[in-house]
Amino acid sequence: xxxxxxxxxxxxxxxxxxxxxxxxxxxxxxxxxxxxxxxxxxxxxxxxxxxxxxxxxxxxxxxxxxxxxxxxxxxxxxxxxxxxxxxxxxxxxxxxxxxxxxxxxxxxxxxxxxxxxxxxxxxxxxxxxxxxxxxxxxxxxxxxx
Length: 145
Known about the structure:
By secondary structure, the chain is an all-alpha fold. Helix content is about 70%, strand content about 0%.
């Protein structure tokens, strides 16, 4: 698969806007591990090899375990993830698959109960951002380094 256009060079202002979202996410109450799990899970669902490679490396660098990364796509079947992480993962999945019925009331209410409105808002923005990055990487055929 050959790389297509380099969006960062062709549309630098668009890339700057994406990086502004990343800068915002760096100021949130979400922990680095929570953000990594959210990014990896969305990237798994979207099939984004570039983002999976990048975010699993970053997660391991920040202390995430191999076991949890291997089992992330089956997170509901394990006890390895905290209630907060489970709420984030459920919310991320439903945002990623928004066309399949949106975010359910049960998922939303559970996320607010466990995380609070502020962190839910931050998680929504994190999920939206990684989904946008996934779409950029997949559409432009960003190569895995």
